[in-house]
């Protein structure tokens, strides 16, 4: 169900539920579980599109680089399974997209030395990471609302590319919580802005201004990689070429804008819902469009690329690239100090 103002009465009911739940946690009636190691939560107060997955990867890389045994724990959105699924044990991939979900498989491929666990009960998944895989730090993906798992710090991402402050609560708008919930945050990161000045309107909001640690970040293309060959290419390979943009993410416009900024011309756009699982018919439509329009490349996201492996034969002899993106924190030294102090 897409957010719409007509659903405002339901937002009032939803808001009362959120307020009550937070009150129960704040007063210790609902308990948070300590799993014995620091937990770094990466979350937001909106429904999708702020860049939680790349930020989770960025944080995990920081601690892996300092010799920590890191586990990433998440619900595993879009997976076809239930219960605890170990996507990676830090050495081997142990699950496919259907079992672990597209984001978790993508994270596991980006972090081959990290333990990656999907579990709708995050406390259970975190305990498994600590007790069976000896993790000494947990990075919790999409954890701000999941208060059952006690965390050392809460990092909340705010999308700098649209007017977050004007959005209503679900289901009339995109916000998961009232803005005053940001008082629980230890840090906010305004994402998808070119420089810190672009983040100023959000940073000056009274609900954000009270947060002690404030950062801004860009999410920038760094290369393209052949989806089926694994060969990394420089970005200028796209310049002057016609492409088909294909994605199943929360914010396809941002993805498409990045492609166009690199000098490519998008002939057709196939934008599906976040975590979408492609069907044979949809792939056939993409390939038919490629044939009729004689485009040079098909471009997708890294998260979508993990879902295309089963269609390798269909894409034979057709250049399919994934746009590789990277988080860049503008206040790099302060960010490192903040993460270091968390453990």
Short description:
Helix content is 30%, strand content 24%. It is of the alpha/beta class. It starts with 7 loop residues before the first helix and ends with a helix.
Can you put this structure into words, describing what you see?
The protein is an alpha/beta fold. Helix content is 30%, strand content 24%. The chain is built from eleven helices and 13 strands. Strands 1, 2, 3, 4, 5, 6, 7, 8, 9, 10, 11, 12 and 13 form a 13-stranded mixed beta sheet that branches.
The computed structural class is alpha/beta
Give the % helix.
25-40%
> What does the largest sheet look like?
13 strands, mixed
Radius of gyration: 20 Å
Average pLDDT confidence is: 95
Count of alpha and pi helical runs: 11
Strand content: 15-25%
Stretches with pLDDT under 50, minimum 5 residues: none
Compute the number of strand runs.
Answer: 13
What coarse outline follows from CA principal-axis ratios?
A: globular
The N- to C-terminal Cα distance equals 40 Å
Q: What is the string of SSEs from the N terminus onward?
A: HEHEEHHEHEEEHHEEEHEHEHEH
């Amino acid at each position: 169900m897409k957010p719409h103002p007509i659903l405002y009465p339901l937002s009032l009911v939803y808001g009362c539920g959120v307020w009550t739940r937070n009150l129960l946690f704040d007063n210790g009636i609902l308990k948070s579980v300590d799993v014995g190691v620091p937990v770094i939560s990466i979350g937001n107060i909106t429904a999708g599109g702020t860049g939680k997955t790349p930020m989770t990867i960025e944080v995990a890389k920081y601690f892996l680089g300092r010799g920590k045994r890191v586990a990433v724990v998440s619900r595993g959105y879009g997976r076809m399974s239930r219960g605890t699924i170990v996507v990676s044990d830090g050495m081997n991939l142990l699950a496919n997209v259907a079992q672990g979900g597209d984001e978790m498989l993508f994270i596991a491929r980006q972090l081959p030395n990290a333990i990656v666990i999907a579990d709708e009960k995050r406390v259970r998944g975190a305990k498994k990471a600590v007790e069976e895989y000896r993790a000494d730090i947990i990075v919790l993906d999409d954890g701000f609302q999941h208060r059952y798992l006690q965390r050392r710090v809460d990092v909340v991402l705010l999308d700098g590319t649209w007017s977050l402050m004007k959005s209503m609560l679900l289901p009339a708008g995109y916000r998961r919580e009232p803005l005053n919930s940001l008082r629980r945050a230890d840090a906010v990161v305004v994402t998808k802005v070119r420089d810190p000045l672009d983040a100023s309107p959000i940073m000056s909001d009274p609900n954000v201004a009270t947060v002690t640690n404030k950062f801004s970040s860009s999410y920038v293309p760094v290369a393209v990689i052949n989806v089926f060959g694994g060969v990394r290419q420089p970005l200028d390979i796209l310049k002057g070429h016609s492409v088909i943009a294909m994605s199943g993410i929360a914010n396809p416009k941002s993805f498409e804008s990045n492609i166009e900024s690199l000098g490519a011309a998008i002939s057709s756009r196939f934008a599906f819902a976040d975590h979408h699982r492609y069907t044979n018919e949809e792939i056939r439509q993409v390939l038919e469009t490629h044939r009729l329009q004689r485009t040079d490349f098909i471009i997708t996201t890294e998260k979508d690329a993990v879902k295309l492996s089963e269609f390798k034969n269909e894409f034979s002899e057709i250049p399919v690239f994934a746009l590789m993106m990277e988080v860049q924190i503008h206040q790099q030294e302060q960010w490192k100090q903040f993460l270091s102090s968390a453990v």
